[in-house]
Every structure is written in C-alpha cells, then in structure tokens.
C-alpha cells in the first residue's frame, strides 16, 4: 500500500528511515549500485521527498505500529445495535489505527482494497488500517467493540 513520507529519522545503527503517514518506519538507505537514493544523504534531499509515496508492506500485512497506543473505544455493539455506517464502507483518519475486538459470536470484516474478507471471533481480532475503506457484518448474534490507536504524544 502506498503511503506518503511525513518525516525522517534514524534507526539504532544510524541508518536513515522514512516515517510514513501510517506511522510505520521504513529504511531508505543509499547503497549503490543496489539501492540508489542519494537524496537521503542531505537534509535538503530528504526534505524534497516529503509527501513522496513509498510502498508500506506492514500496512499490507495489517501490522499495527509498535509504538501506537489506545486512546478511545466505542461502546459494545450487538447484531441489533451495530451502526449502519459500520456496515457500509468507511475509514479512519490519517494515522488512526483501530482494532475490532469480538467478545461473543462472529463478525465478517471486509477490506476490498487489500483483498481481505475474514471472520472475526474472540480468538481473532481485526486490525483497521488508516484511510482504508472497510466494513463489518454480523454473522448471527455478536458483541464487539472498536479500540482506536494513535501515535503517542
């Protein structure tokens, strides 16, 4: 999934990393002839790349960024109280991840852009990737809530 670069930093070994809008870090090394990114060598070069999109394989794998923390939770929904808006395609804002937690029953979770149609249960939560359209559908009696995550302040 393509994500814009929002900033830069360095890993523990001093190698440059791009911070993507999803919150994931990604190495952006300059290692010719295998990797040719001379722009990472200067502040001006890195600044010129802000907003450029890089492919984030961690988003493709539904990986919640390690450093993100929960900050809000919905009420518990049932098959009768789930809002219609959750049954239709909707998304979270830039940088906002979520976890769909089923406490009873089963819930279908669809993410067409990533080719995902999975069944959630007490044993399997669903991860919501920022800005990606998704929907849920109760599969009989169900209780679930959504926990939202963001980068720590």
Explain this structure to me?
The structure is a single chain. The chain is mostly beta strands and about 150 residues long. It has two domains: about 1-60, no CATH class; about 70-150, Jelly Rolls. Helices cover about 10% and strands about 45% of the residues. The chain contains three helices and ten strands; from the N terminus they run E-E-E-H-E-H-E-E-H-E-E-E-E. Strand 2 (about 15-20) and strand 3 (about 25) form a beta hairpin. About 20% of the residues are buried. The mean pLDDT is about 95.
The CATH topology label of the largest domain is Jelly Rolls
CATH architecture of the largest domain: Sandwich
Give the CATH class of the largest domain.
Mainly Beta
Number of strands: 10
In DSSP terms (H or I, runs of 4 or more residues), the helix count works out at 3
Ends apart, CA distance between termini = 25 Å
CATH superfamily of the largest domain: Jelly Rolls
Residues in helix, %: under 10%
The biggest beta sheet is recorded as: 6 strands, antiparallel
The secondary-structure element order is EEEHEHEEHEEEE
Beta-strand percentage range: 35-45%
Which structural class fits the helix and strand makeup? mainly beta
Low-confidence stretches: none
Task: Summarize model confidence as the mean pLDDT.
Answer: 94
Report Rg: 18 Å
What number of domains? Answer: 2
How would the global form be characterised? elongated
